[in-house]
Write a structure and sequence with these properties.
Rossmann fold; 8-stranded mixed β-sheet; 46% helix; alpha/beta
């Protein structure tokens, strides 16, 4: 690529690349549009261990990270991550001009590097993956001095991120409304960039694969707020049913809660029916999910989860599979009639919904048919969003 091409540095702390699909799609889309792209983020497992490498034309700069667990865990995680990010950022600046600094939350701290980049003439893009004030309320509540102080801090950091940004990217229309109202931003500075996959590619990877047996699939991050503990409790209930001795739960993903989740089930009969696959690329996880009768999104109702567009639901829809989930505002918007909503927001409610689908092949087939229609109706494909990203960047440059 020509050395005079515009250059963007993307900052991400939550997941490594190319595992973080949203960030990697943004990076490769900008690369294809003629940008020189640098991504600074944490190290991962397997092929994401090298501190510096070029992956598919994108320069990736990584640092070691200790994943958070609880409030103290964040204190341990974020300061070293920010220091490493700062060091790589300075290194990237010494290596050449930076035209755009693109900060992905969480945490809402990369605006500091965005402001530093402005001293060199760079523009700042705030890529708001999660509304952190709602995440704070969901994790720590709103009562008590510590919870109130933490919520106030997240609001201040979010406001600083909004003020610093020349462009704000949100994952759905609800989060865009938050940016417009809480951030008091003009409409032309906030665009929706959904967590949509390359649907054609994902479908091609699972082409011709049909559901096999009574299989339930999950793909996603395994953190404290992602409900996988509730899913495992529900699975114990499912497995205890006399007609469910041949069921299988396919868990794809990893995260800070993974070690405790592996120890959560003590019954060998239940353990033998659960497969932990770890983080996997689409070429591996798409066929696994395609063999499942139904996907599951076990995120419990919270102020945060009601606003979240669950990537896993979009993946299930793209592969022609319905989804069992709890009653969440954004999940309903995404999945519509391809969802099986649990009647109760707990493990028993989730288990009952899973059992209903597994026991009724016709209902499973109906959900699969609706999923295929839903993915087309909602236009949940990366292509139009990638074009919107490139057009917005062109106006910045």
């Amino acid at each position: 690529m020509h050395r005079n091409a515009p250059r963007v540095v993307i900052l991400v702390e939550n997941l490594p690349v190319p595992l973080d699909r949203r960030v990697w799609l943004e990076a490769t889309t900008l690369r294809d549009a003629g940008w020189r792209v640098v991504v600074i983020g944490p190290r991962g497992n397997k092929g994401m261990r090298r501190l510096r490498e070029v992956v598919d034309g994108v320069e990736v700069l990584r640092y070691p990270q200790r994943a958070a667990g609880g409030l103290l865990g964040y204190v341990i995680e974020y300061p070293p991550s920010m220091l490493f990010s700062f060091a790589w950022f300075i290194w990237a600046r010494l290596a050449g001009r930076i035209d755009v600094v693109h900060g992905c939350n969480p945490p809402d701290l990369f605006f500091l590097l965005g402001r530093l980049g402005r001293l060199w003439g760079a523009r700042y893009v705030f890529d708001q993956h999660d509304p952190n004030p709602e995440l704070s309320l969901s994790k720590f509540g709103g009562r008590g001095l510590k919870a109130r102080v933490l919520h106030r801090i997240t609001l201040l950091l979010e406001a600083a991120s909004y003020r610093s940004a020349d462009l704000v990217l949100t994952v759905n229309d609800t989060c865009r409304e938050i940016a417009l109202k809480r951030g008091r931003l003009p409409a032309d500075r906030v665009i929706v960039l959904r967590n949509a996959p390359n649907v054609v590619q994902l479908q091609r990877l699972a082409d011709g694969i049909l559901p096999a047996g009574k299989r339930v699939g999950f793909v996603g991050v395994m953190g404290s707020q992602d409900g996988v503990d509730v899913l495992l409790d529900a699975w114990s209930i499912v497995k205890a049913e006399p007609d469910m001795d041949d069921v299988t739960l396919e868990l794809i993903g990893d995260g800070p809660a993974r070690p405790s989740l592996s120890r959560r089930i003590t019954d060998p009969n239940v353990t033998s029916s659960v497969n932990f696959h770890g983080y996997q690329p689409p070429a591996v996880y798409a066929p696994i999910l395609a063999r499942c009768t139904i996907g599951v999104s076990p995120d419990l109702p919270t102020p945060f989860s009601h606003l979240s567009s669950m990537v896993k639901i979009i993946d299930y829809l793209a592969l022609g599979r319905g989804c069992v989930c709890f009653d969440l505002k954004e999940s309903r918007r995404l999945g519509g009639d391809a969802l099986k909503i649990a009647a109760r927001p707990d493990a028993h409610g989730l288990a009952a919904a899973i059992l209903e689908v597994l026991r009724d092949p016709r209902e499973a087939a109906r959900l699969q048919q609706r999923a295929r229609a839903r993915i087309a109706a909602m236009e949940l494909d990366w292509e139009p969003y990638g074009k919107a990203l490139v057009d917005s960047y062109a106006s910045l440059a």
